[in-house]
Every structure is written in structure tokens, then in C-alpha cells.
Amino acid sequence: MSDFDSKKLTEQIKTWGRELGFQQIGITDIDLGPHESYLKQWLNAGYQGEMTWMQDHGEKRFSPEALHPGTVRVISARMDYLPGDSKHIAVLKNSEQAYIARYALGRDYHKLIRKRLAQLAKKIENTIEGFGLTANQRPFVDSAPVMERPLAEKAGLGWAGKNTLIIHEKAGSWFFLGEIYTNIPLEIDTPAQKNRCGECTACLKVCPTDAFPKPYVLDARRCISYLTIEFKGIIPEEFRGPIGNRIFGCDDCQAICPWNKYAKPSCEKDFTPRHNLDAPDLLSLFLWTEKEFLKLTEGSPIRRVGYEFWLRNLAVALGNAPQSEKIINALKIRREQASDLVREHIDWAIAQQENPKRKKIRKIKAKLL
Fold first, then answer.
1. Fewer Cβ in 10 A, N or C end of the chain?
2. Domain count for the chain
3. pLDDT tens digits in sequence order for the chain, 369 residues long
4. Catalytic residues
């Protein structure tokens, strides 16, 4: 036990992390005090919308030790996911195609990252057993009340940008985060990256739905990612035009960020786009049967939206597409079997398609394009 060297183990963990495909590993303590009041203010403002889980398990969210007893350190990891040719600008420009958030183009990241974190935790466990110590660890990937971004910032993985995402000075923000809660008193990283957003407000200005009431604050109720994924209701009309052809998530505030010029393509095969979903035809997706939807989104983050809301989102995008008799006919045919919720959006789309004097409602900021 006396031979245990926490500094050496900390260095080994970072090496193992790179070998397992993580681009960076950082380690921090469990003090989240300053972030508790911020989250409470955000929740009190109602910015979480229908994401009621954001206010559940308050103590466990603010205190890693309460979530996993014995925790004294958090190992924070990041893994890049941007495809080599993301095509995001080209797809946004083509209103006959559907835009899907780049993180969702390949296989679901949860299983992949959780497996890698479990392998890392096992290596740590095996190592400290040789010193007569017992590991008490638990990996997390977007699956529990974990304040992953504050922890990543404290661990030196970047700074929290004005768009609320973690930005790395040499890697941008196109990456996933994961954590291991551990009882091992590892060496703590001193966050090496100060906030470098400066006077830049590009991410705030480019947002199609003006979802940022001020820098570093996101009103999820106005965010396209929330509206197309988390929200299970009728999308307010004020947002339907600005949504454009985005049918699952939105990346505008990342795509415009100057720091993302440093982002590197992911080497993970599981993050490679599947079924041509990086630049799919809107109408083709709308014509998918539920069976096709389930088959072609198997193992994908997209499946979690469900077929009904998939059709809802596509109906809005088709309403924003160039006028087409094929689109109008497809909308009318689908309407006959659609749920009341989907029918509401189909009717709106048909009205947009049939109005020859309609205004240009597809809102993409010039700076992004």
C-alpha cells in the first residue's frame, strides 16, 4: 500500500484513455458549489421546458458523493465525433434535404463511450488491487444527474462558451463527454484553459430561434434541438419557419464558432454516417413507414424521438421546402392516417406549400452560410 503513487496512476489513466480512443482525460475534485446556484436560477426561470428531469435529484446532481457514495474525484473524458466530411453547411443550404445533428449520424454514442469508460475503470481497478486498495467507481454517459459540463471545465477539458457548450482551444466543441466517479484520490488537473470567447457573439446571433436570452444562458424552450427531440407537443408556429430543414437537432451555434476551425475529424468508425443520413432527401424520409423507421434507426440516437415526432418534424421541414406537387400530394396522403398532433403540422405544411405568395420563412443566418 505504501508504494501506491497517485501521480503515476494519474499519468497512466491518461495514457490508457488515449489508447481507448479518448482525445483527452482530465481529473477534478467534486466541489460543484458555484454551479448549484446557477442551475437553480436557470430552473426557476423555466428555461428547461418539459425536461422536468433537470430538476430531479437535486442533491445528487450537485454532489457527486451523494450520487455515488465514496466519490472523491471525477475522471472526465472527451471523444471527438465530427465526421470527416460533415456536409452541414451544404445540407442547410439545400432545403430539399434534411439536416440531422452531426452527433446523431452514426451509432448511438452512449454504448460506445460507456464501454470504453468501463474498460478504463477496470484497468484502474486491476492496478490498485496490487497495492491492497479497492476501487469504488461508476462510469456515466449522459445517463444520470451528472453536471458533466461544469466537471469537464474544472478538469481542464475546455471552457463553457457563450453557447453553453464546452470549447477546447485546440479541438473546438464537436465532442462527447463522459465521466467516471471514483474513490481514488488521484492528482487533480489545474484547468489550463481560460474563457476565450472574448467579445465574440457569433453563436448568439446565428441562432435561428433566438434561444439565448443572454451569453452563457440557453432557453431550451426556444432551442431547435429541444423542439425537435425533447419536446413532445405541437411546435409553436413562431418556430416552424426558423426550424427550416432541421429535423433532429441543430448545430448552428457550433458551426459558426471560430474555435471549431481547430476541430479534427473523428476516427471512430461507429460515428461514420449511416444510411446516407448526412444528406438525406426530405420527402424520402417522410415516406418511410414505421417499420422502415425502426429498422433504419436501429442503434441510432434518432430512434429515441419516435416515429410520430419524426413525422412531425419532417412535416415542418416540408412546409419550409420549395413548392412541389409531390410534396403536397405526399402530405395529403400521409394526413389521412396521421395522429392529430402530426396532422396539425401537416396542415400547416400544406398551407405553406399551397401559398404562392408565401414569404421566405426558412431562416438561416447569412453569417453561417
1. N
2. 2
3. 457 899 999 999 999 999 999 999 999 999 998 898 999 999 999 999 999 988 887 788 989 999 999 999 999 999 999 998 888 899 999 999 999 999 999 999 999 999 999 999 999 999 999 888 899 999 999 989 999 999 999 999 999 999 999 999 999 999 999 999 999 999 999 876 899 999 999 999 999 999 999 999 999 999 999 999 999 999 999 999 999 999 999 999 999 999 999 999 999 999 999 999 999 999 999 999 999 999 999 999 999 999 999 999 999 999 999 999 999 999 999 999 999 999 999 999 999 999 867 655 444 444 455
4. 142
Domain end among 182, 217, 238? 182
**274 domain residue, yes or no:** no
Instruction: Let me know whether 58 and 178 are in one domain.
Output: yes
Q: Which domain holds residue 122?
A: 6-86+101-182
Amino acid at the residue 53: W
User: Residue 197: inside a domain, yes or no?
Assistant: no
**Residue 23 domain flag:** yes
Phi and psi for 74 in degrees, rounded to 5? -125, 125
CATH of the domain at 138: 3.40.109
Strand pairing report for 99-100 and 246-248: parallel
* Beta bridge partner(s), residue 26: 76
* Assigned C-alpha cell, 58: 437535486
Asked whether residue 214 is assigned to any structural domain, the reply reads no
